[in-house]
Amino acid sequence: MKQNKTHYLLGTVVLLSVLLSSCAKDYSLTELTAQEQSYNIQDDPVVKALSAIPGISNIELKYNDTRTDSAYFFSFTQPIDHYNPSLGTYQQQAALRFKGFDNHMVVYTHGYEMESDISSIHNTDMREQLNGNQLNIEHRYFGNSLPENQESLRFTYFNADQQAHDIHALCSALKPLFTGKWVSTGTSKDGITTALQAYYSDLYGWNDINAYVPFCAPFLTGTDNQDGTHSPADITPGTYQNNVCGAGYPAGSTEAIGFERLQKIPYYICTNKAVRDASIKAFYASEPKHYMQIIQQYESKSSHSTGNLEKDLTAFALYNFLDFLFVKFSYVPYLQWSYLVPDPELLASGQATSADFAAYEQFITMDNEALSDYLESRENINNYQQNGEHSDDYSYNYVYNPSQSTKEESLWDLLKNIRKNFSMPYYVQAYKELGIAACDFSVADGSYLTSKQAFDVTYDFTFTFPYQDFYPQDGGQLMKDFRKWCYTENTQPILFVYAKNDPWTGGAPDEAAFQQNKIIQMVVDPIAIHRDMFKHRQLYELSTEQTIIAFLDKYLK
Q1: pTM of the entire structure?
Q2: 157, 80 in Cβ contact below 8 A?
Q3: Is 293 in the same domain as 375?
Q4: pLDDT in tens, 332-360
Q5: Backbone angles phi, psi at 110, to 5 degrees
Q6: Do residues 483 and 452 share a domain?
Q7: Nearest in space to 388 (alpha carbons), one of 353, 347, 349, 343
Q8: Are residues 91 and 172 part of one domain?
Q9: DSSP secondary structure, 159-221, as one string
């Protein structure tokens, strides 16, 4: 799926400001007043208590500008390798929002870096619901929590098992201080970390957490190929997107009409020249690197090419349509944008105007951020059509001169690239053990382009990884074991929360597991997106909030 969008699973998303602007606060830091500067942080009772815990250091109390929110940021000493402590230690970063030593504790298990200031660190609805403390724990190998030096980063000790031991060690250190019940939560990859903490807690006999509530967490097993190889790419979310996202609304409703149109667009991309040309033109403008890659494959007679440039570019357009649609569904409520879905039958009829095609091109190339901005600034489809823009500078005969650089990237160059990109560790872990989402091209079957051809042409967009020569892969075993464990585990209460129109819901545990095992539950919200803000009625229904509260009441009281 879209590398710079969908894989921030896996965490960071721009919410619709049009929906939540009334909830916005200014958390920017300000200079302390003279009275505040005279305050000795060492006299703070929380600082005193934290300082007394072995391994905690570098405690810093940060406020927002209105002094209505604060958090204690600190470091905690962790083994580089929990199975070989003699290798030394590293400093894992954490933050504590304090309510009271006897209040419940919400453990937010980051799957990425933890924000370093109060202005952006996630303050959960879970904490508000429980009137509790919140402990945010940065994932190892992200942000400043580096078991290896930045200059020699090789991800040697980077896996879910090591992170689970990190979380257990920190929670164990703090539990004598905070005597309320403990609940763990996280969203997307953060939620994967939450659920895996339950898995490892059962495996190792830990009793740190009383209940777990992961939101929107996909558990992807990857693809076992016929030749015996394994790819971390998993089409399960793509299949769910094709068949479920946007479905189930009353016939004739705006949402039902939108779903019908979304179902037809891939067909018309593959069968109608006008729709195909408009799609290729739009994605040529928005995704030029992928476009040039398709041209290079064709000109070099790559095995990934069909040998027909038009077919190759059709696959390119289909991939990007599905990819951009993925992030629309994930991060913007479908009820807010279903009315924008253009009618492909009109475009294919020969009766469409240039404005109709402009609207179509703009819609298919909108990612979640562009769509959110559009919904905030425009009120109706007429404005959308009037403001649509496209370029006529397009031709199938575009000439691409391939780079003379070598195909195989050295480990050194790869690691330099990872060190410059703070989200890159995710891709390493996805390759090694967590899996990654991919398109389901079966929507192309029945046209002149087959799903296999679409898969092959766009293979390098999703299914190849520069890490395969440097890191071991578990063949999807961790995710397979976790999904199997969900059927039988009996020590860790988990409520899995998903959104009906979120493609990542396709990666939920098997429905049969919830029918067989009563210690785990699942709720699928009909209006939610890939977020955990269950107390916001624009994003979650009241019934979901009530289910979450009932679960918390059962295990935290």
Answers
A1: 0.87
A2: yes
A3: yes
A4: 999 999 999 999 999 999 999 999 999 99
A5: -65, 140
A6: no
A7: 353
A8: yes
A9: SHHHHHHHHHHHHHHHTTT--S-EEEEEETHHHHHHHHHHHHHHHHT----SEEEEES-----
